[in-house]
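S1.2 Input.
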Amino acid sequence: MKRNNKQLYEKIMRNVSKHVKRALLEYETTVTHNNGEFDETSSDDYYEQPEVKYADIFYDGKYHPTDNETLCNLVRQLMLEEDIMDLNCIDVSGITDFSYVFADNSGLPWIDIDEWDVSNGTNFEGMFMDCPYFNADLSAWDVSKGVNFANMFFNCRSFDSDLRYWQPYYAEDTTRMFCDCESIDCDFRQWNMRNLKEADQMFENCRSLRVIPQWYKLY
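S1.3 Output.
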């Protein structure tokens, strides 16, 4: 029964998220294009364009964005228009900047991005910021080239992925990285943070975290 309830909840949240986000995007787009006056016709025209826009980066069964702006727009397009939550159809191996890709998505309950190759990523700032219902398995991600992790999971209250095997060797800024992640309980003691410069409020309000790593106490 619990499993069925969870599946029903996820289905409801996906539908709510899709329609709420679509309404907000329609309003934002039409107001911007019409000097503050809402025009229903222009919003319809807007939604006919993105399919063509991303056709040139779709091959080998996947999308291949190469910059942050294209990735952010593609993610929004797939989630809003095509209602796709399995985003492993996006090859992100050419991306270095993952900042704010999913930020400010309060209706995002779950997505499949466990197969993303983020190994070239250096900037993860605010990637999932203010996604309180977000929870995905990111345990296999290679973030070893990451430098900026500030606010990456800020206010991800439901996030509890096991990140103990991440190796953020070059991390310099982890300010508020897990701030307000109330559900996370991970052993971060084996993280090698030799290059860390800023870590203010990294674990602020992490109420389920049982062990604070020794290296963090130095900041």
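S1.4 Remarks. Residues 1-48 form one domain.
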